[in-house]
UniProtKB/TrEMBL annotation:
Pfam families the record matches: DndB (PF14072)
Full protein name: DNA sulfur modification protein DndB
Organism: Massilia cellulosiltytica
Domain of life according to the entry: Bacteria
Organism lineage string: Bacteria, Pseudomonadati, Pseudomonadota, Betaproteobacteria, Burkholderiales
InterPro entries attached to this UniProt entry: DGQHR-contain_dom, DNA_S_mod_DndB
CDD domains: dndB
Length: 365
């Protein structure tokens, strides 16, 4: 290997399952150049990696470019097929662990975990070349013949679990709607103690009636096209709206007063589920444009609406499909239509076309 051209990575050496591995900080400009990425570049036996979802790449690149002072990436994990040697540093306390990893330039690097980050970094560098001097951690495993490459991919992803959407929203300080939703929950007299802030699903015994992710979707519909520049005022306006809505849904009030269990309401009624909340939010987009003094009159018919799942005549094909609640976009649209008709709010042209198509389907059965 002496005399050959080499990549040299300042590294820390470690040991897992009896094998050495190395952790290095690589300049971002180097990432697209040394790591194989396109399926056409890989031998068939290496194509056990997850197929690249090209739709995700621009989203990740935009995240980098939109947060140049605060973006965060976890380490890329890669296998090296080729000659390597580790040269320990001298004159340091941990000389045997600190040093430089020398990799022959004829070696192959295959990403086991991080191919979408790699592609997004390449895309972001085209718009912002100065990013090239920044670094990302890379964990290198030596894998002669890349025999373990597929198994490593399987092992690295076996126990990987995405955080719940609610938890992601709870900790997201960039998304204004996320910030607004958390503030609305705090300001609302009704939502207080009624919202599960971490999980996307609620157990039968949970005392919470809603998830943060469902409230987020509902508020996105509620605030569509509305000026939200004044965060505090917007949050208070929305909190007032949801408090007004809650006054016209008796089951919600009974849960709040501990006269009915949240689990029973979620089991027997649709109004605490995401599809109904999003529809109530969309209706609210119309209500918010009215004077507050008119809200009660507009929303009072909600108290006479039969929200029960057993009311298949109203909800089957809209909020439910085959008796199961559905939050598909078409079901949300049809649930919005049902609420608007119940509240005597005119349907828009697109809403009317959706409604007409649904009714034709019903009559054709």
């Amino acid at each position: 290997m002496n005399g050959a051209f080499e990549y040299v990575f300042p590294s820390i050496k470690g040991v897992q399952s009896g094998r050495e591995y190395f952790v290095s900080m690589c300049p971002l400009r180097l990432i697209p150049k040394i790591f194989l990425f396109d399926d056409d570049e890989l031998n068939p036996e290496l194509r056990a990696q997850r197929t690249l979802n090209k739709g995700r790449v621009p989203e990740i690149a935009e995240y980098i470019l939109g947060n140049l002072q605060s973006y965060t990436f976890s380490a890329i994990t890669a296998s090296i097929d080729g000659d390597v040697r580790f040269v320990p540093a001298t004159g340091t306390t941990h000389a045997s662990l600190l040093g430089t990893l020398h990799v022959n330039m004829q070696s192959r690097f295959i990403i086991n975990d991080g191919q979408h980050r790699r592609a997004a970094i390449e895309m972001a560098l085209k718009s912002e070349p100065s990013l090239g001097d920044e670094t990302i951690a890379v964990v290198f495993f030596v894998d002669r013949g890349l025999e373990r490459c597929q198994q490593m991919f399987a092992d690295l992803n076996r126990y990987a679990i995405r955080p719940s959407r609610s938890l992601g929203l709870l900790y997201d300080h960039r998304d204004q709607r996320s910030q607004l939703t958390k503030l609305i929950v705090l300001k609302s007299k009704f939502f207080c103690d009624m919202v599960e802030m971490e999980r996307n699903t609620l157990s039968e015994r949970s005392r919470k009636l809603f998830t943060l992710s469902a409230i987020y979707s509902a508020n996105s519909a509620l605030l569509d096209g509305i000026d939200t520049s004044n965060t505090d005022e917007t949050a208070q306006l929305c909190a007032d709206y949801w408090d007004t809505v809650s006054a016209h849904i008796p089951e919600w009030q009974r849960v709040k007063e501990s006269r009915l269990s949240a689990g029973d309401v979620r089991r027997d009624f649709i109004h605490s589920h995401s599809v109904a909340l999003q529809a109530i939010g969309a209706v609210g987009n119309h209500v918010l444009r009215q004077p507050k003094t008119a809200w009660n009159k507009t929303l009072s018919p909600l108290s006479k609406l039969d929200w029960s799942r057993s009311n298949a005549r109203t909800w089957e094909g809209r909020a439910m499909v085959g008796g199961t609640i559905s939050k598909a976009s078409n079901n949300v649209a049809l649930t919005i239509n049902q609420l608007k008709k119940h509240l005597n709010i005119p349907l828009g042209p697109d809403e009317q076309r959706t409604e007409d198509a649904f009714l034709r389907g019903q009559h054709g059965k």
